[in-house]
Amino acid sequence: MTDPGILHIETATNICSVALSKGEDLIAIRESDEDKSHGALLSVFMREVMKEGQIKPTDLHAISVSKGPGSYTGLRIGVSATKGFGYALDLPIIGIDTLLALAIGAKSSDYIQNLITQYPDLLLCPLLDARRMEVYSGFYTLEDELFRKVSADIIDENSYKNILDSRPVVFFGNGSQKVKEIIQHPQAFFIEDIVPSAKNMIPLSLQFFQNQEFEDTAYFEPYYLKDFVATTPKKKLL
Question: Alpha-carbon distance 43 to 173, whole Å?
């Protein structure tokens, strides 16, 4: 088979990102950090990247989506669009771990590359904001292997101490700022401006495609990690 054409969708955070790849190559990408814009922008971005890449929907070989953890609303929108597109075109669906894709993208930053030369046993820890003092976290080796299972953590001054006492860790993602304000450890490093992007999903999606590792379109659901808790506004006292 020629290099597969894959459409990639990333909506797990406030970032709405869509990319088109051909084999290992990024062909086109659209991204926005406008809050609560996923519903309005996602289908537009999908059309635009295919138009720019001169690829018709029927020419695609698969569609990949960031499956979580992350924002409930963002994940629902992304997975729903992916399933609808997959059903309509009979395309296989590839689910990509949001945190792993974020870690893979972060490794290309100059800051982390410099840390790697100093600390060859460095761990990568993407953190996504889960509101209040909670974050979704994943710890990965430089070989993209999961070091500690993905979890939802309530942050205090002792968070991740056992890991930090044994290995240096670089934290990044939109949940890293709240961690930086609380955790003070000589082996804890922080980098800003690392955000999810559909382009970071390309190597993982290609690997999954080649191995024929696809989701069951009928039953595929986002990886929410924790149950959604709906809140109601407090009544005003007269």
Answer: 25
Placement of tokens 């999606």 in the chain: 205
Tell me the C-alpha distance between 145 and 126, whole Å. Answer: 13
How far apart CA 129 and CA 152 sit, in angstroms, is: 10
Question: Is-contact 49 19, C-beta < 8 A?
Answer: yes
**CATH classification number, 5-97+196-210, choose in 3.30.420.40, 3.55.50.30, 3.30.70.3040, 2.70.150.10:** 3.30.420.40
Tally of CB atoms within 10 A around 36: 11
Could you say which DSSP state residue 198 is in? G
Query: For residue range 29-83, what is the model confidence (pLDDT) as tens digits?
Result: 999 999 889 999 999 999 999 999 999 999 999 999 999 999 999 999 999 999 9
Give CB contacts under 8 A, 24+ apart, made by 205-208.
Answer: 205/6, 205/8, 205/21, 205/62, 205/64, 205/94, 205/96, 206/4, 206/6, 206/21, 206/23, 206/24, 208/64, 208/94, 208/96
Q: 110-190, what's its fold?
A: Nucleotidyltransferase; domain 5 (3.30.420)
Q: What does the pLDDT read at residue 36?
A: 86
